[in-house]
Amino acid sequence: MNLVSTYVIGAGVTGLSFAVTLGYGKVLESNPGLGGKASSYNMNTHVGKFTFDIGGHWFHHQNAPKVLQLLEGLSLEKHARQAFVYWEGGLYDFPLQQSYKTHADNSLVQQIDRELAALGQKEATKSQNYSDMLLNSYGPTLFERFFRDYNVKMFGVSDLSQIQIGKYEEIRNVRTNQKTEGYNSYFYYPKDPLGAQAIPVHLAKDVQVRFNSQVQSIHLNQRTISINKQTSPWETIISTIPLPRLVSMIADVDCGIAYLSQQLRASRGLILNLGVKRNLLHANKSWIYLAEMKYHFYRIGFYSNVQPDMAPEGYSSMYVECSPLFFKNKQEALYIVPQVIRDLISIGMIEDESDIVTLKPIYLEQNYCLPDNQVTSLIQSYLQQYGIYSIGRYGSWHWSSQHEDMQQAISLADELRRTINFRKLLKV
Ligand SMILES: Cc1cc2nc3c(=O)[nH]c(=O)nc-3n(C[C@H](O)[C@H](O)[C@H](O)COP(=O)(O)OP(=O)(O)OC[C@H]3O[C@@H](n4cnc5c(N)ncnc54)[C@H](O)[C@@H]3O)c2cc1C
């Protein structure tokens, strides 16, 4: 591996973690700023400054010492999760598979009790698809009255049996007979005015990033990369951009691989960031899940309940994750914003439109990747033969969080460094 011609595409948490661990790599970033999906911005308004991320960007590291080593010196504050479920007109504690017991309809509670008890006695079976996994985890009543519609809204896919189970989906859907609070009963967030972006900014301290550097095409046989219309030689490429986009950039890619990459699907996303007048319903909440189809969103959360500096006194800085069931492209996504605001008023999160001080919709072409493990690993193995490693949430086309992407980048950098040292030893 020749360090001089090693390129890292993308200055999000994955690309930066790779570059900082390897101690080298030209990091190319098409944007003028750092962080990719983990970036933040400020809005100065007549009531003061609001800070927003791209949706809640909470850090859920568990047993990830190497990841924490990269973040040494950054103040990460621990927060207990205050999550709720808006279900059948009431607010329940998260997770619902434990709090349903407070539902007013006693016969419904008993029905769910029976179904969960039966599941608890059943041997854990390998589920065939996402729908099957939810049914095997929560039983038919909770599935039909909450989990099906919540997931349909989140993925924007009406038939959940079309979705394969990736390893991350299995971690998140805990079997109910294990008394557990889920994978994120507490989380971390930078104690820093930058918000979530403090993480990539910290990682980039010792990394040189070339901003406004857009990779346009890659040649496998000529081993050239075109960046802002300039061509350079490469030996190794670490890419963190969406896998289908990477494949489409390769001029001489195998046509079978090109075909396969076009089969990969992801849900689109619309995050609506709002600076609003604070009301009692906002108090002590990190985020709330909503399954009912009449609401155009599946989750809302409050940055300023985690980091109070993110909104002026008396105001909240919040995000609304809108459902891709209601749009197919950016233009259609923007059309639903007025309806989303009406929905927020109808559940009392804002009293009326005049409570909104600032509003910004952020459209995401890819939000949740719908895993297809066989296709992804075929494409990744093909690329690796040429020295191209596609990693991170969008590079690996799976559902992962920041610490998992960082860990993947660290492991790859360690592995490549071992190869370099081994070659030096053999004087190859
Ligand atoms: C709405 C939302 C909420 C999330 N919430 C959480 C959460 O609470 N906790 C958590 O841990 N994770 C969360 N995540 C996941 C987290 O954002 C990702 O795990 C992580 O940011 C992925 O980082 P990455 O570096 O792999 O990719 P990205 O952040 O996507 O970085 C890729 C970079 O490549 C650049 N790029 C693209 N094309 C080119 C090109 N042609 N040339 C050069 N550069 C290019 C992009 O500009 C971008 O900066 C969330 C994600 C989303 C979308």
Automatic annotation (TrEMBL):
Gene Ontology molecular function: any one: oxidoreductase activity
Residue ranges of domain Amine oxidase in the record: 26-246
GO CC annotation: cytosol
Cross-referenced InterPro entries: Amino_oxidase, FAD/NAD-bd_sf
PANTHER family the record matches: UDP-GALACTOPYRANOSE MUTASE (PTHR21197:SF0)
The protein, known as: NAD(P)-binding protein
Organism per entry: Paenibacillus foliorum
Highest classification ranks of the organism: Bacteria, Bacillati, Bacillota, Bacilli, Bacillales
